[in-house]
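Incident log, entry 3
Record: Endonuclease/exonuclease/phosphatase domain-containing protein (113 residues)
Problem: checksum mismatch between cached and fresh output.
Input:
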Amino acid sequence: TLQMETVAINLLTNKHNLRIISAYNPPNKKIQNSDLPKLFNNTPTILLGDLNSKNKIWGCKKTNPNGQKLYKYTSDLNIMVSPPPCPTFHRTGVTLDILDIALISNFPTNLYH
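Fresh output:
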């Protein structure tokens, strides 16, 4: 059972399967090592979500333990992290930050042809 909240759809194009996942990991909840392999396998996958995993490498103000874990996992498995160009967290009196990111793995260069 996954510890983070997820909703996924599987799409079938004329050449490939594609999985799109929306994910949420609540603040102060550790990403479990067992969650990530369940989300990414050989199927081309795009995961979009608020993972509360901060890492300076993708533009956050600081790195937290979830951000360290996610960076190691994505680096080890060649999963691309795609942060937005501007902060996604806005609250009065609090520093702007990036909480929402996209993770992309095994994506074919020619999805339709």
